[in-house]
Amino acid sequence: MSSNESNPNTKELLKMTGIHKYFGKVHSLINVDFKIDEGENVGLVGDNGAGKSTLIKVISGYHRAEKGKIYFKGKEVKISSPKDSRALGIETVYQDQALAPDLSISRNIFMGREPVVALGFLKKKVMDEESMDALKNMGLYLKSPNITISTLSGGERQGVAIARALHFKAKLVILDEPTASLSVKEVREVLEFVNQLKRKGIAVIFITHNLHHIFSIADRIVVLSHGEKLADIKKKDTNVDDLSELIIRGTIG
Amino acid sequence: MKNVENRNRKFLGSFIDISSLGVIGILLVLITLLAIFVPGHNFIRPDNIKNLLSYGAEFAIIVLGAGLLMIAGEFDLSVGSVLAFCSFVFVKLFSLGINPFLVAIITLICGAVIGMINGLITTKGRILSFVATLGTMMFWRGITVMASGGAMMPSDTSEFKFFTSVFIGEIGKIFQSQVLWLILFAVILGFILHRHKFGNWVFSTGDNERAARSMAINTDRVKIICFVIVGLLVAFAAIIQTVRLAAFSSRSGTGLELEVVAAAVVGGTSLRGGKGNMLGIFIGAFIIVIIKNAFVLARLPYEWTYIAFALMIMFSVLLDLLIENSRKKVV
After folding, report:
1. What are the structural domains of chain B?
2. DSSP E strand boundaries for chain A
3. Can you give the pLDDT at residue B324?
4. Which residue ranges of chain B lie beneath pLDDT 70?
């Protein structure tokens, strides 16, 4: 079921081979291979505890795999901290951990990467202007860069987090359950943000429980189950019903 | 359209600043009421104001640090004990005939190291700072009482005129140099908190630590630095207090920890971290100091100050909630 044939027009961005991850005695990732091309949109699905979060945390530098190799643009890399993955151009947008609710939009967008003058003092004006540009770039028109995140809707918050990734020239954006606990309208907004990323040639890994969300945007879908890769399949070769049965059954046979 | 946007922004801006304005308002009302109603106008007599400012400066210097730490999401309950311990270090070394400036520097280093220990226990030991500093609070008090034998110790630095005037020199009839130190610290910390990238890390750490960490902010280091700043400021306050009182008491600073938290909360600092501002913290400290002073002037039993603080804290937390809710409705 794996799609080994590579398209000559696209370049491989990230490749992981033979990834193993243990938490004590729990073998959370078992010999997982994963790859994503430049500008590709991959949906990562699976039941709770399937290893989705662990896999992306290995990519984003939160966890270190005990075994396995990671290649970025064809070169082998070591990702041992979030800083490392960010330096490669990998930005991860976590569900509830992306933004500080009581801080302003601009302080959130530049969190940890503040533009500064001598002695580390903030370039407040640059922060504000670039924040508004970054939001407009995502098709998000908010009143001011100084309003706090807590006043935004769930969809707008995802938009701010994605705009931040885009602003820092991400090549790969990982979205961890971006549509969880959102209204139907907000889900549509978020999916539109993801399409924006695709139009700008940015690769996206989209994690979700909801196969319908992923089907509207993904090029390829990877199914994990109990730490193993169960399927790696192009969207055009499958459908929602087959996939959901696969996830529920948990085995290919 | 542009106009509406601007008006919205202004409206919101004023709403966000209202907590600060509210605190300033409370301070002004308090001062006015006390000036009018305290018998014999004792409140606004120069010697009372001088007294209030000199004690207030010591207290507020500690509150500035504690408030910063609370914005980063942590507490330091050991400030009172560390104050006593640093005073002891100062008095002891001074009595050995060491140059007072050197003694002051050693005392500051002591405070910084103690702050760092608090920070390390909290971050690396993964112990809630509330609990960790409750432990160090008892530890340093115990060490201080043991080392000093619990006795008062006189310590007169007045023969070192320059040294004494640096810390408690008089400027006119009312002001003393500790007030200038306080203002200097408040301005520096205000700039760091609101205009420096470190301030953004402090807010992010206190507001959503996981978000801050996923944006590669070293939240442990941010917290440790805040603890060290608290330690340094406590040591500085200990020096001024010891020079001012020309004596050491192993009981100094008892009960300080909660007064400090009360001052920060009254000044608009969130107990959950991530929210607060230096101006508010500064004013909050003086509100607490003035209330204490008023109780003394009114010759009310000291126990009543606790009830007053309790009411102030609850009032300010409620006010914080109300502002938060109305802001959400506006948007």
Report:
1. 25-330 (1.10.3470)
2. 12-23, 26-37, 41-45, 67-72, 75-77, 90-93, 172-176, 203-207, 220-225, 228-234
3. 64
4. 1-19, 320, 323-331
